Structure formats: structure tokens, C-alpha cells
Predict the 3D structure of the following.
Amino acid sequence: MSIEALLARARPEIRALAPYSSARMESGPAAIHLDANENPLEAPGLAGRGLNRYPDPQPAALVQRLAELYGVAAERLLIGRGSDEAIDLLTRAFCTAGVDSVLISPPTFGMYAVCARVQGAHVLEVPLDARLGFALDADAVSEAIRVQRPKLVYVCTPNNPTGGAASVAAVEAILAAATGIALVVVDEAYAEYAEGPSWATRLAEFPQLAVLRTLSKAWGLAGARLGCLLAAPEIIALLRRIMAPYPLPSPSVEAALRALDPDGQLIARERIRAARMQRDALAHALDRLPGVRRVWPSEANFLAFEVDDADRLWQWLRAAGIVVRNIGRYPGMAGCLRVSVGTPRENARFLDAVAEGLRVFAA
Ligand SMILES: *Cc1c(COP(=O)(O)O)cnc(C)c1O
């Protein structure tokens, strides 16, 4: 499929839009900047940080660093305020209110449907197959793409909240079905904790593929709000038309450059390795507790597990000062809680509290 066929699926008024042109976009660096109505003086106590100036919309140093990290050309990368912003931009660029739809496979990350509903787009649901360990139902998704022609198809892998990864064959089948119809958005928020290569390595092969990555999880920067969309350069250019002119706060960009410097990357890789081991140890320990019905296999930094009385256990943990996510309202996840992998101490306290709670409930 050519990228033109896919671009033709974007909203016509967005394709025709003349983007807002900010002062910083129109000028390069200069000795004296009197073009953006900024304050020439820095705020008290914050001298030397340049916070009185509007930031670079897409700072080249960070774009370069992230492009290297994800193995893509810089023109294929858009940095946003978390991958949440990319989800919102894609929805607004492709979906006409009341007309278009997006396809999701629940139980999955809530933001896909929230952004769709805010935009007035329909949400098509093709549930994961609970009998097959919440595997993607690639045949049903492909059929829905052909019949209902959604604009966006979300594949979350590893999936939140179930923790499992989609098979390569399933995503390839969905990509084939989406040719000329939909952009397939593969959300890899937890990819660092999983086995196997990123779908970013296959972008050149599939113009209808987009990949979401984030610094919020494995990179420990949830508070900086930085995430990426990796896609065809034409898609990136389209979204930049509707993006806020200065989306990336300079302290966040500075923090990311530090976290992603060579030392930071070494430390992050070691922490990811440790988190994966702690996840597996936690899964094993939970699985052996009487009253835990099952622990879903996870390739992420969290575990979904099922117990006899999830609401009561949630309350029990809350009273012990430990909050986990009650995911029982997700389709197919009745009786389930989701716990993030914490520090070894936090995990041990969590396990003790679960064991004690389940003992008390059984008595
Ligand atoms: C946490 C998470 C994200 C990250 O969102 P940010 O806006 O980048 O913080 C994206 N997708 C999924 C599935 C997540 O669980």
C-alpha cells in the first residue's frame, strides 16, 4: 500500500489545514530574540535554565537520541506529551465525528476509547480471546477491518492490563487486512520488559504501521510526560499540523537527555533486567498462595491475577497502605487485580499482605 492511500483516509479538513506557525518555527537561533513576546529576564532563582524562552517544538538532540534508541530515521519520529498525546493526535487527524471508527481489542488500555469518544468517533470492539490466554483474535479483527473500515486499529503489546504479548503472525495478519483502510497502531509501552524485536524495525515494510513508545515506564520518567509516535514521515508531518506549537516543556527534555545518556542507558538496561526477574519471582510467589486462582503470564512490569474476592482483597491491601488496580470491571477480568512490580521491599510487603488477607478471608 502506498502512503498516499493511507493519507487519503485522514480527515480532509486536516490535510487542507495551514498549520499555526510559531515564532520559534519561523526563526532559527539569533543573538537577540524579540520575536515571541517572551520576558527577556529569567524567573528569580531559575537563572541559566532558559525557562523564559519558548522551547524548541521538537528538540533535535532528543529526536536524534530517541531515533537511535528505537532504530528509526529522525523523520519517522514525533515526540509528544506522553504517548497519550500521540493517541489523541491520531484520533483527531483520522476520525470525523459521528462518521468514523477506531477498533480496539478489550480488555485493553483505556485511552484509545476515551480519545475516540472525545472526538465523537465510534469504538468497535473485538475482544481478546480469554480462552486462549487473552490472545488477539486476528481473524475477527481482520474481518471487522474489511467490513467496518475503521480508521485506526490498536494493538497493545504487551497488553495492559492482561500482560501478554501479541504474536507476530497475528499482527502481520492484521496489517495485511488493514492495507489501504486503517493505520495499525502498535502500542509498545512495555516493550522493554518483553522478549522479541520492536515493531519499529518493520516500519519501512508497512506504511500502514505506527508504533507508540514511551519514557513513562522502563525509563522512569512518567512525570516528564514524554512519549513517541514512530510512523511514516507523512503521518508525522500530518500530526505536526494539529499539535500544540510548544508541546515539550524544556525541563522534561533536559531530564530525558540525562536519562538517555550512555550512563543512563546502562543503568536503565540493568534495572529492566532486574524488574523482569522480580516480575517472574513475584508471579511465582503469588501463584503459590492459597486463594490465588491464577496469575496471567506477563511480559510487562505488572501482573494480573485472579482471587476469590478481589474487591475485599483490594480493600484489605488499601487498609495496609498498598494500592493495586482493581481491574474486575474490564471484560473477561472479573475477580482480577493488577499489581505493578515495585522495589523488592515493596513486592515483599505486597506479598505478605496478600497472603495474610487471603488467610483471614478463608478462615
Ligand atoms: C502507561 C501506558 C502508556 C504510556 O502513556 P504515556 O502517556 O506515555 O505516559 C501507553 N500505553 C499503554 C498501554 C500504557 O499502559
Observations:
- Residues 192 and 240 are 27 Å apart (CA to CA).
- Residues 82-84, 109, 156, 160, 187, 189, 214, 216-217, 222, 227 surround pyridoxal-5'-phosphate (CB under 6 Å).
- The chain has a mean pLDDT of 96.
